[in-house]
Amino acid sequence: MSTATVPTPATPGIADAPAPPERTSSLGIDLKPLRVAGAGMLAVAAVRPWLPFTLGPPCPLRTVTGVPCPFCGMTRGVTALVHGQLSSAFSYNPGAFLVVAMAIVLLVAWRWQRVRIPVWAVFVFFAALWAFQLFKYSTGRPL
Asked: What is the Cα–Cα distance from 32 to 61, expressed in whole angstroms?
């Protein structure tokens, strides 16, 4: 009786399988377009009170549903903050402080080309802004 084994066909090993794409938990953001947008935002906010017309379209979500979006009041908040009206800026939208701070940092740190932001931080930022807006909406405070 022979104890030889029958050869089996080769099965692909784990190393032969393509690697799944890596999940990233952060967003890579190019800063050049944001730097230009930040400079434009600060310039418009500086002259906005003296313009004879209103800049920007109304919020689509608030127009259709009456419910404010996370960015409702951001234009007025940035304008108030650029003009030194801190309490008005906070009451319009507290996100204006972060947006103006980011614009100033981008202009000062002009050598930075790219930055990575954790995805969870973006969600927390939007959730906090929307919670603030919904709080104002539910308590009857001016939007």
From this structure: 29
